[in-house]
Amino acid sequence: MKTKITRPERPFRYFSDDIEYIVQAYGSRARVVQLWRLADGTSDRWIYLARITPYQCTIEYIANRFGGGDYRAKILGDWDPERRCEEYFERVSFAIDGCFRVTDETLARTRSQQQK
Q: Which long-range contacts (CB under 8 A, 24 or more apart) does 81-86 make?
């Protein structure tokens, strides 16, 4: 029988896509943020970009490192040895204006994942 996992209550937020505020509200419980970007020209293909620290999870950092586009951030906590995975808090969708050029790093990751 599976045990029911209770998640801590999500922090209050004024805007559902304010990634900086949401990550900051988790405080020291948030250990890492996984970033995914919607592949250009698709509506359902997400490209894995990187794992960044909560400190790095700002719009400016993401825009300068990966460029504009639609993103998803998965906020994760401590490693749970019993379940053999990190504690999952939530997934946040947000967008960055297309005036930020897609970077070479993002293009390389997109190409490598499309070849799989």
A: 83/5, 86/31, 86/32
What's the CA gap between 48 and 79, in Å, rounded?
20
H/E element, 111: helix 104-114
* Whole-angstrom distance, CA of residue 36 vs CA of residue 80: 23
Other C-beta atoms lying within 10 Å of the C-beta of residue 27: 9
Report the run of H or E that residue 48 belongs to, with start and end: strand 46-52
pLDDT tens column, 8-65: 666 666 556 788 889 988 889 999 999 999 987 777 889 999 999 999 999 999 999 9
Q: How far is CA 50 from CA 3, 10, 27, 34, in A?
A: 31, 23, 20, 6
Q: Are strands 32-38 and 46-52 parallel, antiparallel or unpaired?
A: antiparallel
Residue given tokens 């020209």 in the structure block: 41
